[in-house]
């Protein structure tokens, strides 16, 4: 069985290699003024966020294949044959890390990829799973529900300071894979890091207008731990009670969440772009608070459509802050 698979994949890889070679004669994209000479580096990036980072650091010297498309839930992703082909022909694979891409190791093995995998999370201070550890009351109960005892929160990018570490890791990976372009990558990194600093200071300024006692967040799933820690918010609860998106609240937990929302004076529940808003809407109705959904839904796991302002990390994060601050200020 395994051997048969290998044959199929070998054929697929050969086809993909031919396709890539055929693309090699393409002229550079318009506006690729910083392009240095030589072939572009083929990079596979797993999530929309990481792919956006690679595009910013790599500029016109890389060709990025993004595996997970916008508004797709990354927690239960199943790779396609096309993903496998892309990985087989890539020079570099860049991942978010922290266990978000459970499918990646086996896919890399199936693809026969022997190149470098850049773990963009290297050096980021990770949060333990769940948000209740400081209170202590639910810690044991929650730990029992998670598969691994040492589960960490993978949503690291929601703190722009972590994003800076991620793009620095990416820059190192790109420079090692294509040393001739190292200067260009370093230059791009400097420019993008300034954008991340600006995002962080703008976020902080927006939050400074909201009293700390009003900074209460209920989201669709538990994706904003790093954001909450960075801007001193309080995590009241989530519709899906875990760091991934597979769990469901029991009837009792739903009732408890409604009661907590009422008791804490939480003003709104925020739906997420990559998850159905139905339960969030029901809870909001029961608790008598507004639900922020539709176009205003938060980008918890994903980015917006590629051509929209929210199609970039910077745009999506600015959207999140604006939507949350507006809802909590009103
Ligand atoms: Zn998530």
TrEMBL record:
GO BP terms, alphabetized: cell adhesion; metal ion transport
Residues covered by region (Disordered): 125-156
A molecular function GO annotation: metal ion binding
Top-level taxon: Bacteria
A Pfam match: ZnuA
Signal peptide annotation: 1-21
Record field: compositional bias (Basic and acidic residues): 144-156
Keyword Metal-binding: yes
Predominant location category: other
Protein name: Zinc/manganese transport system substrate-binding protein
Taxonomic source organism: Actinoplanes italicus
Taxonomic lineage from the root: Bacteria, Bacillati, Actinomycetota, Actinomycetes, Micromonosporales
């Amino acid at each position: 069985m395994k051997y048969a698979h290998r044959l199929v994949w070998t054929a697929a890889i050969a086809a993909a290699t031919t396709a890539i070679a055929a693309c090699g004669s393409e002229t550079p994209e318009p506006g690729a003024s910083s392009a240095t000479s030589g072939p572009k580096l083929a990079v596979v990036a797993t999530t929309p966020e990481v792919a956006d980072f690679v595009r910013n650091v790599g500029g016109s010297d890389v060709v990025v294949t993004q595996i997970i498309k916008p508004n797709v839930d990354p927690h239960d992703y199943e790779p396609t044959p096309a993903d496998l082909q892309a990985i087989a022909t890539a020079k570099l694979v860049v991942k978010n890390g922290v266990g978000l891409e459970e499918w990646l190791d086996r896919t890399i093995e199936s693809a026969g990829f022997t190149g470098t995998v850049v773990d963009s999370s290297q050096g980021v201070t990770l949060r333990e799973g769940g948000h209740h550890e400081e209170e202590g009351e639910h810690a044991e109960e929650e730990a029992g529900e998670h598969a691994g005892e040492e589960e960490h929160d993978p949503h690291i990018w929601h703190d722009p300071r972590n994003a800076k570490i991620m793009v620095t890791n990416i820059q190192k990976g790109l420079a090692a894979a294509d040393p001739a372009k190292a200067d260009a990558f370093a230059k791009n990194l400097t420019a993008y890091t300034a954008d991340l600093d600006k995002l962080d200071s703008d976020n902080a300024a927006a939050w400074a207008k909201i009293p700390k006692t009003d900074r209460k967040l209920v989201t669709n799933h538990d994706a904003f731990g790093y954001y909450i820690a960075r801007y001193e918010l309080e995590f009241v609860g989530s519709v899906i009670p875990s760091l991934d998106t597979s769990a469901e609240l029991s009837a009792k937990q739903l009732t408890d969440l409604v009661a907590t929302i009422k008791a804490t004076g939480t003003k709104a529940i925020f739906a997420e772009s990559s998850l159905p808003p139905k339960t969030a809407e029901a809870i909001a109705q029961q608790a008598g608070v507004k639900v922020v959904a539709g176009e205003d839904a938060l980008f918890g796991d994903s980015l917006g459509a590629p051509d929209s302002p929210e199609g970039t990390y910077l745009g999506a994060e600015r959207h999140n802050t604006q939507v949350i601050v507006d809802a909590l200020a009103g």
